Amino acid sequence: MTRVINHAGWVLLTIGALLIAVLSSRYFLLGAEVAAPPPLLAMVSGRTVTFLLHVGGGIIALAAGAWNFLEWSRVRYLNLHRWLGRIYLVSVLVGGLAGLSLAITAQGGLAGKFGFGMLAILWIVTAVFAYRRIRQFDIESHRRWMIRNYALTFAA
Question: How far apart are CA 109 and CA 107, in angstroms?
């Protein structure tokens, strides 16, 4: 279960994460009101700061998380791994709380609101579980929870 992502898998994961991050950065570069398609614009209107906190948290989590999956980086640069982990967890917390707030106005009726709300809750909860496991020095369980959490990050 705890197989380390091989080099090719990590490269694909990182390319995917960076593509999502670059595409999402348009909301910062162009402005949320300009870059958002019409259905999203209705939800973003009046909640731009919350939306940008959600997007920004996701972008940072995608970038920081990809690096931390490299085993050699954890071994060689443990302090960097820990700091990127802290940055990752804060970005998940910020992005998840903003996402939970945005879920209230999500499109797709009750199913959309519930789905996005549960995604935000699970994103935060799995991050808390991963953090608690590493604080207990349970590295194996921490890795499993981080894999789950990063999969939720990729829901973007």
Answer: 6
